[in-house]
Amino acid sequence: MFQTTLSTLLRKRRQPELTCAQPQKEMKFREVTVYLVERRMGNSRRNFLTSLARSKGFCVDNILSSKVTHIVAEDNPAHELWPWLQEQDITDLGKINVVDIAWFTQSMRAGRPIPVEAQHRIQKPSVQPKPEAGPPDSPWLNVSQYACQRRTTLNNRNKIFTDALDVLAENYEFIESIGPCLGFRRAASVLKSLPAPVRSIKDIEGLPCLGPDTMAVIQDIFECGSSSKVEEILTDERYQTLKIFTSVFGVGPKTAEKWYRKGLRNLEQIVSDSSIHLNKMQIAGFKYYEDISKPVSKAEAEAVRHIIEEIAGCFSPDVTITLTGGFRRGKEFGHDVDFLLTVPGPGKEDGLLPAVIDRLRSQGILLYSDFQESTFDLSSLPCRRFETMDHFQKCFLIVKLKKEQVAGQQAEQRCGRDWKAVRVDLVAPPAERYAFALLGWSGSTLFERDLRRFARLERNMLLDNHALFDKTTNTFLQAKTEEDIFIHLGLDYIEPWQRNA
Ligand code: DCT
Ligand code: MG
What we know:
Layout: H1 6-9, E1 33-36, H2 43-55, E2 59-60, E3 70-73, H3 78-87, E4 97-100, H4 101-110, H5 159-174, H6 178-192, H7 212-224, H8 228-234, H9 237-245, H10 253-261, H11 267-271, H12 280-287, H13 289-292, E5 296-297, H14 298-315, E6 320-323, H15 325-328, E7 333-334, E8 337-342, H16 352-362, E9 366-372, E10 393-402, E11 419-428, H17 434-442, H18 445-459, E12 461-463, E13 468-470, E14 475-477, H19 482-488
Parallel strand pairs: 1-2, 1-3, 3-4, 8-11
Antiparallel strand pairs: 5-7, 6-8, 9-10, 10-11, 12-13, 13-14
Helix pairs in contact: 5-6, 5-7, 5-8, 9-10, 14-16
Magnesium ion binds near residues 325, 336 and 338.
């Protein structure tokens, strides 16, 4: 019944790489000629990526000439790449797209060259970084301790370290040891923001949030290829069991620990133990475990959006629906789909979510719902605690998504079913609170936490999902857009796809 085992919950090992590139065969996309920059990428990876692209009909040239339309580089900071490109003496370099590997991998996934967007470009630096600032050997200068002052894309160049630190953080989360958990999360987040892989311990000396425990883990990985502390946790029965238990919707560390202490070790034992009383959320969590423990794809999220749009449109033609959470940050997969629903005009959102829920039910596609009425009251704001859920009208749902509704998916039969259960969160803030709600629900959790911390410690302001309050002047600061909030905080605007802290 529970097919998701620990091995699928834990990260997969990298596949071995090919050593010699396939020759060019059929060219499907004549308007695109790719050149892969070997420096930092390495010869074998370059060969592997060349073969991959050619097998998909892309033209990949081994020589950098003005015939090339896309120069693709991996782990090359702009201030290193651009001087090198300029030395290559190519005519019309300015007309060539200089892009990060993310453009390449997304194109491979799409099976066609995707349009180049701002986040793909490796911009020519306008000023060279000053070598005299910062620790002498560290290539990264002025990295902020606040995630909201760092740009963190999904292109994590230090996965080997951040995966290890995330295991340590998670292990502390299971024992509800908040301090050390946050310490490792912050360290991982700093490494995720770096524009290139860490090559030696010297590279990261002087960076914020990297305490002695973190440095020891990184040192271990440099010396032995892995951290013995992390390996120990990964093979620990307690960690493995808590990881499986907390993967069930509605099961947090406290409940998981309670079951573990009872001697229970797998999900079958939980459902067959008559002394265990499951709440409504957990019953749904077990019932739909096979589906909702699997990632939700972007195409599935879009299909859910269509359903909600159609239904909400019956409530009011003016309703707007915004995809938030990880998908707004550019993720291809998430554990759920988060939407913000708003209707212009004061109080116009009243009754919106109950109407949506009723209609999902009458269509026979509502598998679970937990509706929370709005308790929003501006006079009780802003709230000091980050962990507190916001007070907007919201609901946590499980809906039945028909495979035929998902773009690119056949109505295949899987386990005798043509549908998949998907977790969906809907939030309906008043329209005038939209910017704050959007910023709060876009995440990531650590980015949000640091925005609030920055507001409090650096600006004497209180920020939450409802409002921004200036304690110096005792006033609420108004905002129509996320940009307005960043301006109030005196922060450079960080795009959603740069908030993957
Ligand atoms: N959030 C928040 N307060 C909380 C929990 C979450 O403000 N107590 C924000 C941060 C992220 C956003 O809401 C959506 O939450 P999740 O769906 O849990 O996160 P996600 O980034 O969308 O992750 P996933 O892609 O796995 O769904
Ligand atoms: Mg989400």
